[in-house]
Amino acid sequence: MSEATTPRFRSVLDRFVAYKPGKVVVSPEGRSFKLSSNESPHGPLPSVVDAIGEAARNVNRYPDNNATALTEAIASFCGVPADHVAVGCGSVGMTQMLLEAVAEPGAEVVYAWRSFEAYPLLVSLSGATAVQVPLRAETHDLTAMAGAISDRTRLVFICNPNNPTGTVVGRAEIEAFLNRVPEDCLVVLDEAYREYVRDDDVPDGLTLCADHPNLAILRTFSKAYGLAGLRIGFLVAHPLVAGAIRKTFLPFSVNSVAQAAGIASLAATDELLERVEGTVKERDRVRATLIADGWTVPPTEANFVWLRLGVRTMEFSEACDAQGVSVRPFPGEGARVSIGSPEENDAFLQVAKAFPHRN
Ligand code: PMP
């Protein structure tokens, strides 16, 4: 196509690099351990597979666009009326919906950095202006974030636990922050990893909503609930907030198979949370082993660990690749390693032990 006939795209795309998902690698011996996307190492429960199979029979029909039964199941699980809930195509989809609801030229969105990769991507696509506040000691600096809020700030993301560092902010800090945020600015507490939190000082965001009508809690079925491939996220907030966000829903973007699997997974919460308990034990074992081997690993409340490796990040990631262990490198910064099955974790620990440098 000659230049003259090239379609004109938004200039934001000139510098834009699309989201890069965690990769899969295979060692020369054929070993492959995917620890790059913070997924559950377990396949779906038989009851969930049955629900998926049943729903698959009807995929000639559009899904329930309101995801009524799923929304009601989530609401009852969270102990709120259904009008406090909005669902979306993964919490990434919900993040985009949130931005659709608030972003207009000149609007600012505040978030910590480094944090979840999708924030800068989706903020820049939305046309809003990103205001990134550096982490302090690998943790959200909520005092600095409160200081970064201006009268143009429409949205703040707090990722708790933070991806990729695994670190958390506690109740007192969050409450002090919420008390400083203007009421017309939406605060989103992204709790994608909530089920892995064992630190009692970290509040369950759902307990904060009643006192803060500008607070939205973002959750996902992709991690503890093991449905990453089906793409379901949800938000709990004041009905006026949830209602505004629901308006931005891309029609039918939570499909009928996903809706059925979400409902079946909530019905199997006890079994799924038992699996989470195993992951938490593995997380603590992985971190303790790394520390015993001389690594510095920030305390993590999520299903991953963070190794700050600076200029050695890619060297480390390549050493992992060679053994079939895929981790998530952030070049020049560090590597995030998901907690997998004991066997997968052992494969990673072996590479880490053999790596000639410590961080
Ligand atoms: N928020 C955070 C902090 C995440 O780490 C992730 C997944 N990596 C998500 C949201 C998105 O999850 P999903 O879209 O699969 O629900």
TrEMBL record:
**Catalytic reaction list:** an aromatic L-alpha-amino acid + 2-oxoglutarate = an aromatic oxo-acid + L-glutamate
> Which coenzymes or cofactors are required?
pyridoxal 5'-phosphate
Give the modified residues of type N6-(pyridoxal phosphate)lysine. Answer: K223
**What SUPFAM superfamilies does the annotation carry?**
PLP-dependent transferases
GO MF annotations in UniProt: aromatic-amino-acid transaminase activity; histidinol-phosphate transaminase activity; pyridoxal phosphate binding
Q: Which InterPro entries match?
A: Aminotrans_II_pyridoxalP_BS (IPR001917), Aminotransferase_I/II_large (IPR004839), ArAT (IPR024892), HisP_aminotrans (IPR005861), HistidinolP_aminotransfase (IPR050106), PyrdxlP-dep_Trfase (IPR015424), PyrdxlP-dep_Trfase_major (IPR015421), PyrdxlP-dep_Trfase_small (IPR015422)
Q: Please, which domain of life does this record's source organism belong to?
A: Bacteria
UniProt key word RNA-binding: no
What binding partners and quaternary form does the record give? Answer: Homodimer.
Among NCBIfam families, the record links this protein to:
hisC, PRK03321.1
Q: Which family does it belong to?
A: Belongs to the class-II pyridoxal-phosphate-dependent aminotransferase family.
- This one is known as Aromatic amino acid aminotransferase
Q: Which gene encodes it?
A: hisC
